[in-house]
UniProtKB/TrEMBL annotation:
<dbReference type="Pfam" id="PF00349">
    <property type="entry name" value="Hexokinase_1"/>
</dbReference>
<dbReference type="InterPro" id="IPR019807">
    <property type="entry name" value="Hexokinase_BS"/>
</dbReference>
<dbReference type="Pfam" id="PF03727">
    <property type="entry name" value="Hexokinase_2"/>
</dbReference>
<dbReference type="GO" id="GO:0006006">
    <property type="term" value="P:glucose metabolic process"/>
</dbReference>
<dbReference type="GO" id="GO:0008865">
    <property type="term" value="F:fructokinase activity"/>
</dbReference>
<keyword id="KW-0067">ATP-binding</keyword>
<dbReference type="InterPro" id="IPR022672">
    <property type="entry name" value="Hexokinase_N"/>
</dbReference>
<dbReference type="GO" id="GO:0005739">
    <property type="term" value="C:mitochondrion"/>
</dbReference>
<comment type="similarity">
    <text>Belongs to the hexokinase family.</text>
</comment>
<feature type="domain" description="Hexokinase C-terminal">
    <location>
        <begin position="209"/>
        <end position="444"/>
    </location>
</feature>
<keyword id="KW-0547">Nucleotide-binding</keyword>
<dbReference type="InterPro" id="IPR001312">
    <property type="entry name" value="Hexokinase"/>
</dbReference>
<dbReference type="GO" id="GO:0004340">
    <property type="term" value="F:glucokinase activity"/>
</dbReference>
<feature type="domain" description="Hexokinase N-terminal">
    <location>
        <begin position="9"/>
        <end position="203"/>
    </location>
</feature>
<keyword id="KW-0418">Kinase</keyword>
<dbReference type="InterPro" id="IPR043129">
    <property type="entry name" value="ATPase_NBD"/>
</dbReference>
<dbReference type="GO" id="GO:0005829">
    <property type="term" value="C:cytosol"/>
</dbReference>
Length: 458
């Protein structure tokens, strides 16, 4: 078996490395898709839906009181009790699992499970008999018709509970609470995790105008001029509106065909939602490890890795976990200890050579850097689209951003290359954005006096 250098692997990975010219094409196409989502004329057929959130007031930092928050967006969800005081907050929370049978069962069972956990939490916290406003972070594509009315458009991230798509999620939760009859909770608002992230960071930094999640999924929201939000038919006296782009679906109409690879197509084909969320599938943690595995399998079969000999584990879908990418890249440059141990102990590739480890690390870097570049192109698009604020803070959350050792720096460098040169921007890690942000939305609404669920427009 001849020696396979990293240069040869680099050549075979070339379609995973995007130029700035390609990224600027992505930006142009995304900007067009966002405008289609904002327009009443084209919204129905738009790929990037740009749902108005009905959240028009950002926090001032002076909010106070006790609020509940519910954060559902993956295989675990959190219930939180947030106590706000001017410039300060206290947060108690508990994590509950969502078993696979409930994720893919009936909607009634899903919301009964959530209501049961809510009841358990407020009992533990000694607030079962207190009526508290609740902010509900629901991290799936929603068409919002009010602050407390959100229609699920499609499940993502492995959820497929029946009887929920097309329904008002708040109403389903309220019905489950009524079925229990043992708690008194008023749902003030439903929001996406990106909105929660933006709100949480804006509480500390009033320059925060964008919220982005790079975790199991990938999505972003931003502050738009209300006059551009044609789908919003409420009071337009306030100048701004947070828009939930749902940019994970970008590419579903063929916009990304010019940069998608055979590995992207294979991951998509074997996913729970083929043909959908294609932008997300090139970035998010749910798919990053599988993209690497697809490349490892192809290169093994082409005898470019592991002397052409794989393992049962390597050929098993999703066996290469996304956390392996972060762990492998966390080793210092030129060190491959973690890579070798993962290949040997987790993938059963005991015959791995030093050069294999070098090459596998390079493949991981290609996948993670492309993800960072694409996310950066999306954020640069939003920065350029918004009014020319002199400073823009981007609130960021999600496991990929948090735990990948280079993602932050990669994004900083690439956004700077792609966005307008006169913008001073920074990335701000959100602290419990999905929870605290939901509580802050409830706090802002209660402060503004917009308490009626039947007339929820802020």
């Amino acid at each position: 078996m001849s020696f396979i250098s990293v240069e040869e692997i680099r050549e075979h990975c070339s379609d995973m490395i995007l130029s700035n010219e390609q990224l600027k094409q992505v930006m142009c196409k995304l900007n067009c898709s966002i405008n289609q989502g904002l327009s009443k004329k084209t919204h129905h057929d738009a790929i990037v839906k740009c749902f108005v959130t009905y959240v028009q007031d950002l926090p001032t930092g002076k909010e106070k009181g006790k609020f509940l928050a519910l954060d559902l967006g993956g295989t675990n969800f959190r219930v939180l009790l947030v106590t706000l005081a001017p410039g300060d907050f206290d947060m108690k929370s508990k994590i509950y699992a969502v078993p696979d049978s409930i994720m893919k069962g009936t909607g009634e069972k899903l919301f009964d499970h959530i209501a049961e956990c809510l009841s358990d939490f407020v009992t533990e916290q000694g607030v079962k008999d207190v009526s508290l406003p609740l902010g509900f972070t629901f991290s799936f594509p929603l068409s919002q018709e009010g602050l407390s009315r959100g229609i699920l458009k499609t499940w993502t991230k492995g959820f497929d509970a029946s009887g929920v798509v097309g329904e008002n999620v708040v109403e389903l939760l309220e019905q489950a609470i009524v079925r229990r009859g043992d708690v008194n909770i008023e749902v003030f608002a439903i929001l996406n995790d990106t909105t929660g992230t933006l709100m949480s960071c804006a509480w500390k930094d009033h320059d925060c105008k964008i919220g982005v999640i790079v975790g199991t999924g990938c999505n972003a929201c931003y502050v738009e001029k209300v006059e551009n939000c044609e789908m919003y038919e409420g009071d337009k006296s306030k100048p701004e509106m947070i828009v939930n782009t749902e940019w994970g679906a970008f590419g579903d109409g063929g916009e990304l065909k010019f940069i998608r690879t055979e590995y992207d197509c294979e991951v998509d084909k074997n996913s729970i939602n083929p043909g959908r969320q294609l932008f997300e599938k090139m970035i998010s943690g749910m798919y990053m490890g599988e993209l690497v595995r697809q490349m490892l399998v192809k290169f093994t079969k082409d005898k470019l890795l592991f002397c052409g000999k794989g393992s049962d584990t390597l050929f098993k879908k999703y066996a290469f976990e996304t956390r392996y990418v972060s762990e492998i890249e966390a080793d210092p440059a030129g060190v491959y200890d973690k890579c070798r141990s993962i290949l040997r102990d987790d993938l059963g590739l005991e015959h791995t050579s030093e050069q294999d480890a070098v090459n596998v690390r390079f493949i991981c870097e290609c996948v993670s850097r492309r993800a960072a570049d694409l996310c950066s192109a999306g954020l640069a698009t939003l920065i350029d689209k918004m009014p020319h604020y002199p400073t823009v803070t981007i609130g960021v959350d999600g496991s990929v951003y948090r735990y990948h050792p280079h993602f932050h720096n990669l994004m900083i460098a690439k956004i700077r290359q792609l966005c307008r040169p006169d913008c001073d921007f920074k990335l701000m890690l959100s602290q419990d954005g999905s929870g605290r942000g939901a509580a802050l939305v409830a706090a802002v609404i209660s402060k503004s006096g917009t308490r009626s669920l039947k007339n929820p427009v802020a």
